[in-house]
Design a protein that fits this description.
Blueprint lengths: L1 H21 L2 E6 L2 H4 L11 E6 L2 H10 L4 E5 H10 L4 E9 L2 E5 L14 E5 L4 H12 L7 E5 L2 H9 L5 E5 L2 H8 L4 E5 H11 L8 E8 H6 L1 H20 L1 H10 L6 H11 L1 E5 H18 L18
Parallel strand pairs: 1-2, 1-3, 6-7, 6-8
Antiparallel strand pairs: 3-10, 4-10, 4-11, 5-8, 5-9
Helix pairs in contact: 5-8, 6-7, 7-12, 10-11, 11-12
């Protein structure tokens, strides 16, 4: 009898253990470019339970409450969450470089110098877009010769540009693609990511990259599940590879999972979104100087503190 009870107890424990191992990882991602690289991962519903958020506030709440094990979010938000949670999150990977572009219907604008004496409309004030643009203009000696006016909403500026009412504007994808599809006179004149790279090189900071999207993990989850985190990173790297290899197919996947509403827009936007996968020491080398830049511009943009060594997850 005791033997039967022992066998039953062991069996029950094994079943509970198997169920625990089979529990999917709760992954949150923002709709839009930050979530595009995960679109192939979203097929694996056994391993991952995805929640797509429409606003960064939802990511903050999910991470703070422990509802999210892993989350894709803006790079500066990851640093802010690290402060809010007293070091409770770690940076897993960079997933999106700059998604900003300068769009115009003016045929004379082909370089950053061509903006001298002009008015540039933009979005993203008090965030990475403003500080990145300010850095670019400063490094090119244009800080005092380019007037920048900010709109609070991407969609508002995109609508005006599509209607031809604004001649020169800086927008993120997929709004850039939306404008180009609606107004054939508009074109992408300048890639802000490339401009930022050039500005960094001028300043002697070759390693700094404009990185606007990343993936974070709750520290407790990472400590308790290193194998799951490693498997996620490997699968995520493969998903990013598939997205970049075939934007048209990826666009269909993006629409199917609700990351973006239209496959055609997604397919055209993906090449301009700089979807990437960078982890470990390479990740830190690229993003740490950016955090220092943001901290110098506005400490609140990254939570008021620079991340410490423990913030960077290296497997």
């Amino acid at each position: 009898m005791k033997r039967i009870l022992l066998i039953a107890l062991v069996t029950a424990l094994l079943l509970l253990s198997a169920c625990a191992m089979a529990e999917p990882i709760n992954v949150y991602a923002l709709k839009g470019p930050t979530g595009i690289g995960m679109s192939y991962l979203m097929d694996d519903t056994d391993s991952y339970a995805f929640t797509l958020a429409g606003a960064a506030d939802e990511i903050v709440a999910a991470v703070a409450s422990g509802s999210a094990d892993i989350a894709a979010c803006p790079t500066n938000l990851a640093a802010t969450l690290n402060v809010k949670t007293n070091g409770g999150v770690q940076l897993l990977a960079l997933n999106t470089l700059g998604v900003l572009h300068i769009v115009t219907n003016d045929p004379t604008i082909d370089s950053i110098d061509d903006l001298a004496g002009r008015k540039l409309y933009a979005t993203g004030q008090a965030g990475v877009p403003e500080y990145a643009l300010d850095y670019i203009l400063t490094q090119n000696g244009l800080k005092d010769s380019v007037e920048v006016e900010y709109f609070s909403e991407h969609s508002e500026l995109a609508t005006l540009m599509a209607a031809g009412e604004v001649s020169v504007g800086m927008l993120p994808e997929p709004h850039v693609t939306s404008v180009l599809m609606q107004n054939k006179d508009m074109r992408t004149a300048l890639d802000v990511t490339a401009l930022f790279d050039d500005a960094a090189k001028k300043a002697g900071n070759d390693s700094m990259v404009l990185t606007m999207g990343c993936v974070l993990v709750r520290r407790e989850f990472a400590q308790q599940n290193p194998e799951k985190v490693a498997a996620f990173l490997d699968a995520y790297a493969k998903s990013v590879e598939l997205v970049n290899a075939d934007p048209a197919a990826a666009g269909e996947k993006v629409q199917a999972h609700g990351v973006m509403p239209k496959a055609a827009v997604a397919a055209k936007a993906i090449p301009n979104c700089h979807i990437t996968f960078v982890e470990g020491e390479a990740m830190r080398a690229q993003v740490e100087p950016l955090y220092e830049l943001l901290f110098a511009a506005n400490p609140k943009s990254i939570g008021g503190k620079l991340p410490t060594d423990e913030f960077y997850y290296v497997r």
